[in-house]
Design a protein that fits this description.
With 221 residues, this protein is an alpha/beta fold. It has two domains: 11-136, HUPs (Rossmann fold, 3-Layer(aba) Sandwich), CATH 3.40.50.620; 144-218, no CATH class. The chain contains six helices and eleven strands. The protein has helices at residues 21-35, 54-70, 85-96, 110-116, 119-126, 213-218; strands at residues 11-15, 39-44, 74-78, 100-105, 131-136, 152-159, 162-166, 175-181, 190-196, 199-206, 209-210. The protein has a six-stranded antiparallel sheet, with helices on one face. The protein has a five-stranded parallel sheet with strand order 3-2-1-4-5, sandwiched between helices. A hairpin with a 2-residue loop joins β6 and β7. InterPro entries: Histidine_kinase_KdpD, Rossmann-like_a/b/a_fold. GO terms for molecular function: phosphorelay sensor kinase activity.
């Protein structure tokens, strides 16, 4: 764990699968930077990790990449959980001495709120000593995100000196990362994002192939 200027504050970001999770993580990172305090990212799932589909696996990989890129203290995965979400969040808050929580505002109609109760109210009751930051998930994400489909897991492979992207796990690969496919195309055009020695890289992909010689030379591939 890296050192911080103060330990009387600590931030927990709760993320769920979908396009808004990066916004939540970056919001928590901004707060933690201002306070110079520890930052943690938490995901809670009722499924076990080996039951995650490719979309969920891509989200997990993306979160882990962000954690490395931003220097976040820890990513916490609570899988195969059958307890109420607010109970799990409260447990993590107690264990890590969390003082502030960042969550997304879930879409919930009036009938759901009457029958199930507001999750935010339930969370406030579970952790009354913690400040909660609610970030609207209905706002526009980033304009750049509107240019690409949802990220999927991919692998960068050296195919006899030609660098290309594979989506099925190959026998050998250079890097595992996320592929963001451009909207409105049948070709595998887009961006491949991956981590190398703690730094995040993005490489342009054209029809499944990579021609970014500058980045390839930089990484000594």
């Amino acid at each position: 764990m890296k050192s911080h200027g103060r330990m009387d504050e600590s931030i927990l970001v709760c993320v769920y699968y979908g396009p808004n999770s990066e916004r939540l993580i970056r919001r928590g990172h901004k707060i933690a930077n201002m306070l110079d305090c520890p930052l943690y990212v938490l995901n809670i799932s009722r499924q076990s990790a080996d039951e995650f589909d490719s979309s969920q696996q891509a989200d997990l990989l993306h979160w882990q990449s962000l954690v490395e890129e931003l220097g976040i203290d820890e990513f916490i995965l609570k899988s195969n959980e059958d307890r109420p979400t607010q109970q799990v969040v409260a447990e993590v808050c107690n264990d890590l001495n969390i003082t502030q929580v960042v969550i997304g505002q879930t879409a919930q109609n009036r009938w759901e709120e009457i029958t199930k109760g507001s999750f935010i109210n339930q969370l406030l009751k579970a952790i009354p000593y913690v400040d909660i930051h609610v970030v609207s998930v209905e706002r526009q994400v980033m304009a750049k995100d509107d240019m690409y489909e949802k990220a999927i897991r991919a692998f960068l492979v050296d195919d006899a000196g030609v660098y290309r992207i594979y989506f099925d796990l190959p026998e050998k690969f250079l890097y595992e990362g996320l592929f963001f496919k451009e909207l409105g195309t049948d070709f595998d055009n887009g961006r491949f994002k991956f981590m190398y020695e703690g730094k995040s890289y993005e490489i342009e992909v054209n029809d499944g192939y990579i021609h970014d010689d500058e980045t390839i030379r930089q990484l000594n591939l």
